[in-house]
Amino acid sequence: IDQFIAAGEDKWMRQSGLVMLLPHGYDGQGAEHSSCRLERFLQMVDEDPHYIPEMAFNLRMQIQQCNWQVVNCTTPANYFHCLRRQVHREFRKPLIVVAPKNLLRNKRCVSTIEDMGPSTQFKRVIGEIDPAVYEQPQGVKTLVFCTGQIFYELLAEREKQNRTDVAIVRLEQIAPFAFDKVAQHVAYYPEAEIVWAQQEPKNMGAYAYFTPRLMTATRQINGDEKRTRYVGRQVSAAPATGMGKIHQEEYNAILKGVFDFEE
Length: 263
What we know:
This protein is α/β, with parallel strands linked by helices. The protein has helices spanning 2-6, 8-12, 38-43, 76-88, 131-134, 150-161, 179-188, 207-222, 244-259, and strands spanning 19-23, 69-71, 95-99, 125-126, 142-146, 166-171, 173-175, 193-201, 229-233.
């Protein structure tokens, strides 16, 4: 992976369109069945976290100028568009797909045929989907950025608590980073605290990748630098626990950190 996939184009000017489908999701199955080591793939992305490239649709060349793409799709339609654009491009770039097996059985992880039809395309970021939340942006006190499986867990907990003061935004394409979209969502909820929520321990996952890029996006695009509060598992040498009880305690702590945080 390091020698050929991550660095092959840079070293030998040889493009590759290889797609890697990597199981990744925390369901209490232990260290060997939870993480694809997302953080390692993000660490090898050759993207400057302090520089925003051209982001206009007709001029954007982020993917061409990056060594690979890392995505964690939360809808079948976005997964379809992700694979479709991979083969329709005039260039080739490796694609790392972080794929939670849990979503294959999640009844809410569905799309319509229309979502894959004409005039539809891959969404780098998916914003808040509940009208009761996004139609009242001034009332949102917490803006949660996340990626992958944890979205559905946060959504279920928010509905259980009947909350409309927490907005949830999904990063479908983690790398290259959607500076423009992230800045846009932060600006839309001016009173909200920014939270990054993840299933992984703090020294893993996308937290270290997301944080400096959020600061750059909000500083250079919005003129108001924002920092994020971390919600996730504590630092750990192992990706996950193998004990169901501890897994559930960690899961509950994440939900509490998002919805019941007290300074």
